[in-house]
Fold this sequence. Notes:
The protein is α+β, with helices and mostly antiparallel strands and 314 residues long. It folds into two domains: 52 residues, no CATH class; 250 residues, paralog of FGE (formylglycine-generating enzyme), CATH 3.90.1580. Strand 2 and strand 3 form a beta hairpin. It is globular and about 55 Å long. The two termini are 39 Å apart.
Amino acid sequence: MSDADRYPSAKAMGELEALAKREPSAERAKDAWRVVTTAAWNPDAHAVLDFARDKELVLPCEQTDSRAPNLTWTNPLDGTEMVWIPGGPFVYGTQRKTATLPGFSLARHPITNHQFQTFIDKTRYEPNPLHGESTDLYLSQWNQDDVTSLLSRHPVTFVSLYDALAYCAWAGCVLPTEWMWEKAARGPEGRTYPWGEFVSNYQQFAHVEASGTCEVGKFGHVRSPYGCEELMGNVSEWCYPLPAKAPVTALPGPNDLKLPKAGASELGSVRGACFLRGSAEALKGHHRRSLTTTRRNQWVGFRVACVLPVRPAE
């Protein structure tokens, strides 16, 4: 067994040691965050996390004061504003069962066209051609190869589950499982809707019954119990697919899920009512929908999550 196999995070530890000797700066924080998130799936990732915390290259997300506002932070790799969702019990499903999830961070908004354009510019991402009938639909709402200025702050759509996972890998993030998503939407008390129990005049609370997407942040006055926005309305969102018998408490895995073989298909989950919907049922936090994982359409986007209990140094 080689040293790389025996100590997979050895390179990451060396990079962090060098970063710890540099003066604190935004660039150092960004570099450290990239190292930590890249090593997150290594079997010895705990050593990387412990060292980074000890050297204050990352900061804890846990808050000692339960009355304090929810902590927010910005991912230096893609500029996404993240909201910390504290660990603890939550209510899920139509039967209001309870489960407990560890703390995680979830993006306040869905990923925008501008952010996805930046991802393509930085990585030269080319999607896998094994997308069947959706192959030619990739980013088909864009004008030729670039997103128009009018859609820049709209959620990215016409992306498959695998396109979303590729973005997550670049941004040092993951997709939330549908149960992480539901906890963020309903809170520990299990709200029916992200904004509470009432549904009259729901167009005041979500971008629904519309002909297309809108800019993220348009409904900034409506937030989930933890502070996330647009979990209902605008776009439905891809969630990380868990094995059929996985417990509700299971967390997302690596971003390298394989596409189905040619001619085969797999179903994934999307959460949240999109701009086309308008029924009270579709707006409920427990509402679920299945979708072929290679499918691309005008009403599904995604938002990112982070399962690390830390955030970048400031």
